[in-house]
Amino acid sequence: MKQTICAFFAIILFSLLFAHFTSAHAYVIKSNPAQNEQASANLKTVSIQFSEEIQQIFLTLQILDKDGHRVDTNQAHIDKKNPVVLVNNVKKKLAVGYYTIKWKVISADGHAVNGTIGFKVGQPANSSTVPQTDKTGNDLPGADHLVIRWLIYGGLSFYFGFLVFLKFLYPACSPLIYKRKSTRIAL
Fold this sequence. Notes:
The chain has helices at 2-17, 143-182; strands at residues 28-32, 38-39, 45-50, 60-65, 77-78, 85-89, 97-106, 112-121. The two termini are 42 Å apart. The strands form 2 sheets. The chain has a 4-stranded antiparallel beta sheet with strand order 1-3-6-5, with no helix packed on it. A 4-stranded mixed beta sheet has the order 2-8-7-4, with no helix packed on it. The protein is an alpha+beta fold and 187 residues long. The relative contact order is 0.17. The protein has 2 helices and 8 strands. The protein folds into 2 domains: 2-20 and 144-182; 26-140, Immunoglobulin-like (Sandwich), CATH 2.60.40.
């Protein structure tokens, strides 16, 4: 009985440890520079950290000026020391103005995710030329991802709760049920 209980809890622990594999797509945890941050003109590298590992193929990280011209080295790559970080270098010293980081990656679960991050260098004179950035992928998971995640966790909880019921509670009740049925009054 003791071995059965230990094995059961080992299965539960193992399942919970690897529950992140069932989670939704990768999302941005932080970036350098961050959304709407004022960066230095001497910025050399742009990096984005994701919530999970990203695949080596089909990744892009572009740094665009307000006119849409690339100011990066076109050598986006995953950081060798940290497989959740996407990096690209800047070609030259950045002029005062607004810039956009446009990225697209394939998350570990095989889904493509993308987004943009806007930042500025110095104090641009004309604020009407601020590039419009969409916020796809720049925030925490959306409501749809949270619903999916909680459905998975709720399903796992129900499943393991049902296993506990069958293993420990149902056998304890079943002899009483069978005993009552077997005792009949003979007339």
